[in-house]
Every structure is written in C-alpha cells, then in structure tokens.
Amino acid sequence: MSVEIGKVKKILGGLASTQTEREALYKHFHQHPELSMQEHATAERIVKELESSGIRVTRVGETGVVAVVDNGEGPVVAMRADIDALPVKEASGKDYASTATQVDAKTGVEVPVAHACGHDVHLMSLLTALQAFNEHKDQWSGTFIGVFQPAEETAEGARAMLEAGLEQAMPRPDVYLGQHVLASLPGGHVGTRRGPVLSSAFSVKVTVHGKGSHGSMPELGVDPVVLASTIVMRLQTIVSREVAAKETAVVTVGAIHAGTKSNIITDSAELLINTRAYSSEVSEHLKEAIERIVRAECVAARSPMEPEFTYYDRYPLTDNDGDATDTVREAFDAYFGDESCDLDAVPASEDFSIIPDALGVPYTYWGLGGFADMSKAVGNHNPAFAPDLQPTLDRGTEAVVVAASAWLTVPVSAD
C-alpha cells in the first residue's frame, strides 16, 4: 500500500487559495477556547463549517462531532482531533492571544482559558482535510471520517463519545489516526514511532488520617503531616528500587494539603499523586506499590483509620500499531522527504487510544513540529505555548491528508 503523490497534491491543491480564510478561522478558535466538556460554541462552529461545505455531520453527546465523507467503495479511515482547551491564562504575546474566561462547570469558579496545548491546530487540520477530501472526490475512493473529540485534557471525552453512541454515528473504520503539535520536533516536521508513543497515566488522591492535638503535646495525637511526609519519601523508592532499569516510570506527588495553623496537629492530610508508565504491567505495579506503601506507613504511624484512595484522570497507553505506522511513515517519507522523522516516546498521556481500542481497530498517532526556532519553543501546557501560524496550519492539514491517502488513494482491487 503506497500513497499516490499526484492525487494527494490535487486533493491539497486549494491550500494556497484558502490560506487567508483558514488562518482567520484558526484565530477565531484560538481566541475562543472552551474548557473540557464545555466546548459548545466550538462544536457549533465546527458543525457550521462542515455543513456549509456539504459534509454530513452528526452530533455525539453534548459537544462531540462526527463528520463522514462517503466516496464509494474502499477503506474507511477515521481521524481524530481534540477540541478542548485549558484553564490557563495565555502569555504567548500573539496579537490573537486568548483573553477568554469561562466558569468551570465543576467548580463554579471563573477561570482564564487558552489553547495552550495546540488543540485548535488539530481541529483546523482535520476540518480543512475533510473539506479537501470532499472537494476532490475524483482523486480517491472509500470513506473519510472526522472525529472531533471533547475533553481530552480530563480524559473524559473519548469515553463520553462511546457512551453517547459513537459506533452508530459512523462506519467502523479500518484504521484510526491522530496527531499532536509538539515543541520537541523541528517546525514543520512530522514524526512517527512504532509501539508505545505516549505513556499511560493515572492520578490518585490519598487521604491519610491522624489524631488531632495541640502542637505542644504531640504525644497525645497522631500527626498526619509527618505521616504524609514519610509517605512522600518512601514513594521515591518505587521507581529507584522496584521498577527494572530497562523500564520507564514516574511517580510524582504534586500536592500535599494539611492543617490550618502552626500549633495545631490536624486530623488528616491529602496527597495528590500522578504516575506515568509505558506498559500496563508497570502501571499496575505502581498502583499496587503506592497502596502498599501508604497502608504500611499508616500502620507504622498508628493511624486510627484506613487510608482512602480516589483514582482519577486515567489515561491508557498509546501503543501505535506497527503496520499502520509503517504505512503512514512510508507516505510521509514520500511526500515530506527529510521533514519526515522519528518521534521519541513522549511521557505525556492521551485518551486517544480509548476509541480505537473499543472499536477493535489499529491506530497510529504522530507528532507535528510547531516551532521554527526550537530554542524559543515552550512545552505544551505552558501559558506561552502557541505554535507558529505557518507552516504549522498547512503542515497539519497535509499530514492528515497524506496519512489518510495511504489507504484512500490506493485503487480498490476487483474481486
């Protein structure tokens, strides 16, 4: 299976003539970001753009959108773009920087919001690719599906779309594709990787209990602050002493909350712990070790109650299918030449793989370089994260079309 470059160039032939309007639409999305599961205006604008292009659209859940371009016999290729933003105040210095705020539906607190992870690039790339395939049906055959997914940042969106009937909204794909703009690749480059590419992750809130007392009489209490401190130190031994050197794992205690006053021994403490791993076996070991260490330290400290564990932000491993990745890499090499490169494993996490895993289809997920000057590039989720407008917008669309075309421009074999 090899991409037909001549057909790809014709499918992408309108990029130059539509550049001004595409950049204006991108700036609109950038200036109007929305929090996870609250992407109502974003979804409505995506639907408006698709319907005006004559593309069949289905709403899935409150803010999910599925677009289907049918074009006769052939493979079914699905491409996903996440559409949510972050509770971050943008500091990119762009003249189109977001100044938006939104009330977080979960907390009731108004927060600044910005596309500090590049999801606006993703949705524009997919939106433009859908329009390109729809306008040039004489160059390909099969079905191209766009999945505009909410709430990647909170690991809710993929599961929410499945629960809302995603399978009924589109044909079963033969392959599921995804991309992410990154600061770790040279600007305009596309990077692929077989196997594990994004880590699995989970967070856990651990509550440990003590016995309150006056700060001058610690012998009458059980100090949960000391208990939490010993847990933090002991957790560091999981990676250094329990995980094999050939494996990769991260255990981070991002917050400790306890107490109100210097001379009061409080009666509980809360730890927020985050983990990363590149295999399900290591991830399960991290979970077991955290619980074992916490329970043991509670016993050692004479804690009067069992600790409590609340798990959240669970992200699966993103483990690229070898054959699908090879197909995309061959197409990228043919079209992009030296700007097609290897992608190192990224320790960030995604809910991208939840949908193809649920559907039982292979997937591959690649990186898109977003900054020409990598010395000035900042990482995703940084308040200053805002990719170069070009060539990022064009290259994101090109990557989607080139990858999908590796299946869709191949002639359908006669039976």
Description:
The protein has 415 residues and is an alpha+beta fold. 33% of the residues lie in helices and 27% in strands. It has helices spanning 5-11, 19-31, 40-52, 119-135, 157-163, 166-169, 224-241, 280-300, 322-336, 354-359, 392-408, and strands at residues 56-60, 64-71, 76-82, 101-103, 110-112, 142-149, 175-186, 190-192, 195-198, 200-209, 213-214, 249-258, 264-265, 268-277, 308-315, 318-320, 340-342, 363-371. Strand 4 and strand 5 form a beta hairpin. The radius of gyration is 24 Å and the shape is elongated. The model has no long low-confidence stretch (mean pLDDT 96).
SSE diagram, text form:
Blueprint: H1 5-11, H2 19-31, H3 40-52, E1 56-60, E2 64-71, E3 76-82, E4 101-103, E5 110-112, H4 119-135, E6 142-149, H5 157-163, H6 166-169, E7 175-186, E8 190-192, E9 195-198, E10 200-209, E11 213-214, H7 224-241, E12 249-258, E13 264-265, E14 268-277, H8 280-300, E15 308-315, E16 318-320, H9 322-336, E17 340-342, H10 354-359, E18 363-371, H11 392-408
Helix pairs in contact: 2-4, 4-11, 7-8, 9-11
Summarize the structure.
It is built from eleven helices and 18 strands. By secondary structure, it is α+β, with helices and mostly antiparallel strands.
